[in-house]
Amino acid sequence: MDKIAVIGAGVSGLSVANLLKDRYQVKVFEKESEPGGLVRCRRVEGNLFHICGGHVFNSRRQDVLDWFWSHFDREKEFVKAERNSVVVFPDGLKVPYPVENYIYLFPEDVQKSIVADLVALAAEGQDGAANFEEFLQKRFGKTLYELYFRPYNEKVWRRPLGNVPLTWLEGKLPMPSVAEIMYNNINRVQEKAFVHSSFWYEKNGGSQFLVNRLAEGIDIEYGADIHSITRENGQWTVAGESFDAVVFCGNIKDLPGMLRGVDTCGKIDFVEDLEYHGTTSVLCSIDANPYSWVYQPGSNHKSHRIICTGNFAQSNNAPGKMSASIEFTDGISKNEILDNLSRMPFHPQFIDHNYSRYTYPIQDSHTRGQVAALKEALSSERMYLCGRFAEWEYFNMDVAMGSAMDLCKTL
Ligand SMILES: Cc1cc2nc3c(=O)[nH]c(=O)nc-3n(C[C@H](O)[C@H](O)[C@H](O)COP(=O)(O)OP(=O)(O)OC[C@H]3O[C@@H](n4cnc5c(N)ncnc54)[C@H](O)[C@@H]3O)c2cc1C
């Protein structure tokens, strides 16, 4: 049996290891002391803390769903939930998500302005946007853009939306036409087309339960922070052991400093300039409410999203409390967090916080081509890239699993 080293025991590395374990001798190296990467959770004062942000599961890919459910007892171990998300504006107005389906809930003058925008867009045509700002204005009109889409997305991405290329968001953007928005408003249609409009959630332990299960029966060395991966005589050496192939599920930005004995002919140089965001995830207890996600476009504080994890599973809550994970883009001090929480809805009470440096990869119009060229160069040496930061893609868990499945079919 060929020996394969997998770097990283996040969702991607664990998926690869499970998919290959019957055909190869697989060893996983993980720098942390537990599996999970971005989906890790820990319990704090009786509450489940999603340390990098709340995670739920669903997929549009049937092969991913089939593979996923082959590891779990869906009825016994998971709950199914319908998404109930809301946008809370700074004046307290609550409009369900997606806001464009609920124009009738805005004040009358705002409704008129949105309708006038949409009528103009229908006449002008909606195609031909050069960047994210233009895309949103052409889809939803200037009023909704200024009221919600611009302030919310600027909080998330921390840059003018005119500087965000569309390639970056390909396949992830809502594309309603003016006719659909009108129809949805007249008929009070609630959007059900999102991948997470209904989702599965673990009855106990949140997403840590998921990765703990995937880690069962896999040879994983924890606390193994890999600094060098060396190619010599047609073999790879990782942590002093020899392997026939390597699947790298870590961060592509670390690769140039790690790779020895391989000439990528400059194809790896671009990684130095790749941009990204981090997330500060804040565990709080909050007022009871019926929501799953609360989106916050207001500029009166810096957080963009509350994930009401306490509504996903009762076991996430300390007795008599309701827990939530509140997200801020990038790092923010505890004092600033406390100050911001005081201006947020549902009276969040701080319990704990965690900053993760890498949570959102940022692509420009060249990134996909550059990653593809690097993958090709490395695969001829039997090294493969797989994962959110290995492929520098805005993957959800299911897409990361799908990427692992696609890769493993080729090995
Ligand atoms: C805030 C937030 C919310 C999200 N919500 C959802 C959601 O609700 N549903 C959903 O499906 N997806 C969600 N996602 C996406 C999901 O987190 C990712 O798709 C998934 O976790 C990616 O897994 P990965 O294995 O590719 O990467 P990672 O989780 O980053 O795993 C990489 C692993 O490699 C290890 N590693 C790195 N370098 C080394 C090294 N040198 N040596 C050894 N080990 C190393 C790391 O420690 C880590 O364990 C969310 C993401 C974020 C940031």
How does the SSE layout of this entry go?
Elements: E1 3-7, H1 11-20, E2 25-30, E3 41-44, E4 47-50, H2 62-69, H3 74-77, E5 78-82, E6 86-88, E7 94-96, H4 108-124, H5 132-157, H6 178-186, E8 198-202, H7 206-215, E9 220-222, E10 229-232, E11 235-238, E12 241-243, E13 245-248, H8 255-258, E14 259-260, E15 275-285, E16 293-295, E17 305-307, E18 323-329, H9 334-341, E19 349-362, H10 367-379, E20 383-385, H11 397-410
Helix pairs in contact: 1-11, 2-11, 4-5
The structure holds flavin-adenine dinucleotide.
Can you offer a commentary on this structure?
It is a single chain. With 411 residues, the chain is α/β, with parallel strands linked by helices. It contains eleven helices and 20 strands. The strands form five sheets. Strands 7-6-16-17-18-15-19 form a seven-stranded mixed beta sheet. A hairpin with a 2-residue loop joins strand 11 (235-238) and strand 12 (241-243).
Keyword list:
about 400 residues; alpha/beta; FAD/NAD(P)-binding domain; 7-stranded mixed sheet; 5-stranded parallel sheet; 11 helices; binds flavin-adenine dinucleotide
Quick structural gist:
This protein is an alpha/beta fold. The protein is built from eleven helices and 20 strands.
